[in-house]
Write a structure and sequence with these properties.
CATH superfamily: Vaccinia Virus protein VP39
Radius of gyration: 16 Å
Helix content: 25-40%
Strand content: 15-25%
Number of domains: 1
Largest sheet: 9 strands, mixed
CATH topology: Rossmann fold
Distance between the termini: 31 Å
Number of helices: 7
Shape: globular
Order of helices and strands: HHEHEHEEHEHHEEEE
CATH architecture: 3-Layer(aba) Sandwich
């Protein structure tokens, strides 16, 4: 499943259309985005620890991003933007699907949060730079991955932190994330294209090409006992931080 519909010269229109069609029930934890609802707490745990380590903040603070700006690229209907706002950030979310931005704005208003949602090409929005840049399950949906990473890097402020997550291109991910997950309806058919998945080494190279240093990746794995959880197993999905060299 993906939050991925950032508009860019690199985005495929078919991808934006696919995810835009899911906008109506994006916030339904039992709907087509159910897997994202399960994945979000795992990603947030990683992000919270990364924030505390990067800015040496108080781990007991409920608003570690107070006074900081955050940009979520490929934000979907705001599943990550809203928690980032609750952590104290001034949040901007960008998505390629107008349907997703409409759903994000409606949900945000309904829960009393102020988030700046934008529909359009990231490179054309004139948004400036941000302390935190996130893009979850997006890069695998982008045609020109180097151009996409460079655009993300251009929006990262000096001393800022970037967090990316994406499926790994392995035999296990082909079998489970594409074959099995779509077969049983865990994610909508056509969500994943295995050939577009990238390995951690490939992502490290893309980030280095944009002047960013990548952390050691952390796996997001699944087990019957634990469900989705952070792990040293990178076979299915992984999450990383990046900083300017």
């Amino acid at each position: 499943m993906s939050d991925a519909t950032v508009a860019n010269a690199t985005i495929r229109p078919s991808e934006a259309a696919h995810f835009g069609a899911l906008a109506a029930d994006w916030w339904d934890p039992k709907g087509s985005s159910a897997m994202l609802h399960k994945l979000n707490p795992v990603r947030l745990a990683f992000i919270r620890e990364a924030i505390d380590l990067h800015w040496a903040g108080d781990i007991r603070s409920v608003k570690p991003l107070a006074g900081k700006s955050a940009l979520d690229v490929g934000c979907g209907a705001g599943l990550l933007c809203e928690p980032l706002a609750r952590l104290g950030a001034s949040v901007t979310g960008v998505d390629a699907a107008a349907e997703n931005i409409a759903a994000a704005r409606a949900h945000c208003a309904g829960v009393g949060l102020e988030i700046d949602y934008r529909h359009g090409e990231l490179s054309a929005l004139g948004l400036g730079t941000f302390d935190l840049v996130t893009s979850m399950e997006v890069i695998e949906h982008v045609a020109d991955k180097q151009a996409f990473v460079a655009e993300l890097a251009s929006h990262l402020a000096p001393g800022g932190l970037m967090v990316l997550s994406t499926p790994n291109r392995t035999a296990a991910s082909r079998t489970l994330l594409v074959g099995a997950a779509e077969a049983v309806g865990a994610v909508p058919k056509g969500t994943h294209h295995w050939d577009d998945f990238i390995t951690p080494d490939e992502l490290r190279g893309l980030l280095a090409g944009a002047g960013l240093a990548m952390s050691d990746p952390k796996g997001i794995a699944f087990s019957v006992g634990k469900g989705l959880h952070l792990s040293d197993n990178l076979a299915l999905n992984y999450i990383v931080t990046a900083r300017k060299d």
